[in-house]
Amino acid sequence: MLFAAAGALIFATAGGTSGLIFGRALINLGTSGCLMATFKTYVMWFTAERIPLSNGLQMVAGGLGAMAGTAPIEYAMIFTDWRGVFYDYLSISTKIQRHRQRAWNPRRPDRQILANL
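Above: the chain's sequence. Below: its structure in C-alpha cell form.
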C-alpha cells in the first residue's frame, strides 16, 4: 500500500505524461498485492475444482466495484479536481497501511500465542 500511496502522490503532482504513467504504475504495483493475496487465499481454502469459480467471482466483484466507484468520484469532483481525488487516495492508502501495521504487529503479546502454535 505504500507503493500505492507514493504513486498517488506522484500522479497528483505530475507535471507531464511520464509522471502520470509512473504514478499509475506505482498505484497498480501497490494494490496488486491485495489481488494476489486474495488469489492465494482461494488456493489455500478451496479445492482445485472451485478455484476457477472463486477467481472468476473475484474478478466480477472487482469489475462491479470499479463501476460502482465512479459515482462517488463524480460527486467528489464537485468539490475538488482530479488531483484532489488522488490526494484523498494518498491519505486513504496511508491510513490503511498504518492500520495494517498496527493490527499485524508480531511483537504484540496476543500475536505471540498464535505464532508459537
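Residues 102 and 108 are 9 Å apart (CA to CA).
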